[in-house]
Amino acid sequence: MIATQCRKIPLAHANLPGNSSGGIPCTVRRGLLLTWLGIGMAAVIPASAASAAGGDYEKVIRPLFSERCAECHSDEERSSGFSVATPASIFSGGDKYGQAVVAGSPKTSPLLQVLRGHKKPRMPMGESLSEEEIGRVESWIRDLKPEETLAADPEEWRWPFVKPTKREPPTVDRRDWVRNPVDAFILKKLEQADLEPAPEAPKRTLARRAYLDLVGVPPTPEQLAAFLEDESPEAYEALIDRLLADPRYGERWGRHWLDLE
Fold first, then answer.
1. Averaged pLDDT of the chain
2. Reported pTM
3. Could you tell me which residues are beta bridge partners of residue 256?
4. DSSP string for residues in the chain
5. What residues does each domain of the chain span?
6. What is the pLDDT of residue 211?
């Protein structure tokens, strides 16, 4: 089943550290799937996201955001997908910058960067928050502990135990880079982090990575030459199919699957 699913998903781009191949290798997808199946963690979610901010949130932060930000960023409006209605929605962030708060680190929190104007456009629109008001938000973020923000999106932290649902690919700036729906989700995260996609790897590198990942040995000179000479658009897909059908693929990866039993 895993091999079948890999063959059905087009490989286009590589966007993982150290991988600039023209696609997300089947081994990466397979590893993610095996993690979903084999992970042994408990779905423990903090009892209340509101408690993450303690009294400071209810007495200081909530009134400030309600007065200055809720007109455009309530649960009803959600401009740019961002809402200040609850600590959970604040932690989750919006469509443009993703996670809005980095617990204990105001400097790297997109929320504070937007309030100070370090990220554009500066918020709130019109009259900006005073330095004293921004200082309140800064102190609140600095006092947060990482585990307190895990309740930002309960669905995200319970994902191994949640039924998969179809999601529409997000809108991205570099539409020319997207070759399949998977690319859109990856590119969205890269754009939120102000990162550029890695360049595509040459065919020689693609072949070596595919062989080493799937069957554990590099291609022979003849196998490599055959792949380099194949100029068809489906050359890489065909190579992956051949390697998935190779008995060495089952020998190499079977032991990992059996370890999960």
1. 74
2. 0.40
3. none
4. -HHHHHHHSPP----BTTB-SSS--HHHHHHHHHHHHH--------S-GGGGGHHHIIIIIHHHHHHHTTTTSSTTT-GGG---SSHHHHHH-BTTTB----TT-GGG-HHHHHHHTSSSSPSSSSSPPPHHHHHHHHHHHHH--GGGGGGG-HHHHTGGGS-----PPPP-S-GGG--SHHHHHHHHHHHHTT-PPPPPPPHHHHHHHHHHHHTSSPPPHHHHHHHHH--STTHHHHHHHHHHHSHHHHHHHHHHHHHT-
5. 2-41+177-187+194-259, 49-155
6. 97
